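One such shown below:

_____
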Amino acid sequence: MSHNSTDILLHPIRLRVVLAISGNDLTTTELGERLPDVPPATLYRHVAKLADAGLLEVVRERRSRGGVERTYRLVVSAANIGAEEAVSMTSEEHMTGFVTFVNALVGDFGCYLDHPDSNPGEDAMGYRQAALWLTEGERTELLVKLRGALTPYLALERTEERSRSLLSTILIPDLSAATTKPM
């Protein structure tokens, strides 16, 4: 992903579109139902920008009321900020990206809680933070194992039996703890 693509992805509305369409094939109308606070003209403009940048692909087209309704799919390989791009980003750009991502998570969580069928006590929903003491090698091993554990599930297609779940991970080195002596 080029730096320009990073700028495209880290826009608040476009990131929400990317997160909403991830794992789905959706029309702009269906995206609008998932993002009801985004005006339709704004949504269409951002979907077009994502498609032009290669982050969304058209998987179907059909005639609808004199126009063409397109169904989009996320191009997963294009919708990631790789290690090379992350290294070239400034601290300010990382903070902007992180805040954009967290705001999208807050929006997703709010939609879940607002849904009449939500049941936080029974839905296997959760949020937690764990403090891990890891060497650089152990941290790398953890990330490799997490990727390995998730890979088969990321490949699963949508079916009648499957419901969509969102798994968001954030790994932040705690540099303030690094200066504290072990007991």
